[in-house]
Model the fold of this input.
Amino acid sequence: MSVEIANESGMDVDELILVDAATFAINRMEVHPAAELAITLVDLDTIEQLHIQWLDLEGPTDVMSFPMDELTPGGRPDAQQPGPSMLGDIVICPQFAYDQAKRAGHKPDEEMALLTIHGVLHLLGYDHATAAEEKEMFSLQNALLSEWLDQRQS
Done:
């Protein structure tokens, strides 16, 4: 599993937490262990520009995902033998995330891990456009985050 981090946010972020959370989620979702993922940390202006450009939505957001290969747990759905793939890119705005964590009463590192797991699930094809999709994705996201947090504490 290769997770590349580019911190362009101007903020100090514990990148090892992001790598650990992403690797944990990808392993639990049974993606090929040689898969690659890129995480870019950006400032508020950059995430807002991306939000407008790609989703036609005003204002900044916390996380965006840009899938490269259509993957599902276990690998590409059309592949006989799942192999390594480039999952895609996750873009996170630490400033937005830290403010969001404060409002929700979370630790900033936990919020960053949650957003990383959320981004990984989007790269694997999960979405929350409908109530049923939201229930499925957020239930899985919360289970993965809880298991990851439990693993870190033991």
Summary: The beta strands are 2-7, 36-41, 63-67, 86-92. The chain has one domain: 2-153. The first strand starts at residue 2 and ends at 7. Residues 131-153 form the longest helix (23 residues).
